[in-house]
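pasting for ref
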Amino acid sequence: MALESSRITVTNICLVSPSYSPENVDLLERKKQMRLCAASHMIWFVPYRTRLLFFRKPPPHLSFGAIVANLKSSLAKALVEFYPLAGRLLVSDSENGLRMDVVCNDKGVLFIEASATGVTVEELAKDEVSGHFEGIPAKLVEDLAQCGDYDILTIPWSFDAPLFIIQVTELSCGGICISIKFNHQLLDGAGTWNFVKSWAEVCCGKSMSLKPVVVETPPCIAVSDDHPTDFELRAGFERVCNADLLKVSTKSTSQSAEYDMKCFAFKKEMIQKMKLENPGFSSFQLLTSFIWSRVNAARDLKDDETTTLLFAANCRGRIKTVPKGFVGMAVVYDHVSTKVSSLRAEGNELRNGADLLKKKIGDLLTEEGAGLYSKVVSSGDRGFTAFPQSKRETALIVGSSFYFPVFEDFGFGKPVGMTLVRPSEDSKLYYFPGKEEGDVVAYIGLTSHAMRKLSFPQV
């Protein structure tokens, strides 16, 4: 049966809240409200993110009902430590514009159970790229990652919307799909996958390998109402009208320019070769520079044009006051811009781009660097958001990470594949680990014209 004719039937919907035991009942008195960080307030218009994991048919002794029961009970246990995820987002106005807080009321994570007709792992994996499934019909992806009757499309969100949504679907072949939707103002990618990994560990009867830490947002990454509205923006930033940002975020794929999103796999050996030939740079710096240069070429950018790379830097464990297990958003967004001619100078585009990234990240991941960025986001006139200057047609926005723990065992085998909901705009680059350890998969979205020209010669 073709995937286009598949059918998903929801069989149960509930809210899963933290399960406090007599031993940890004192945890009920924990912090009840949390202010979200500066990065959250900069991307307040960004919709929920959706990721899907696919598993082959579990062993015969594990029924779908038993698996769902274990997923639910383990989720309730994991939420005791990750309790902000079971809260709700309170959006209000302050003197300095939009303010977002998480009310830790234990309302719960939305949990949906479903069954599929005409959907097999083998069919889903027809266009696999190192553990990533391309070519799944958009309607099927949406049906595998529903949100019940909650409105998570209207921005800012209503107070009753769950901040984390899970759907577990039994496929017609006996395989399983677990989809997650997360509110991107509460959680960044690292925070999300730390939670998913911890949940998987609890499912397997293990202790969490990375202890979650719920604390007041460290000042260096926190948003503040104390900065004057006439604070001078850093070079390369501009104030963008909130109404214009909303127009972009609510634009559907059909309304945007025609573009394609494809997966590209980069082998561990290729990345290691780049590092050996270009010592002093990280895998992220070199691979991102490599992709950036190829995207510029595919777009036919001229030497006198300016190209921009926007990215997120994870502060956990890299800035002293931000613990590795920090629950929430702990990133700073920034960018590098340069003339294309500067990147191509002396025929060393790879090193030139990597050098720009290395310097920017080094300056950014300090208390002072992140603190200055926090002031930029916190300042400005009501109705405007501070945002890096760029033109979509010459920019590349980098997200996710090839270090995320994606292929984790929930007690019935590791995922054999994953995919994501296709964004509604081009100029996106999302990293994830490949199926083989050390490999990297990049989801790249470009206009159809540029995508036809995009190629990656061997380094």
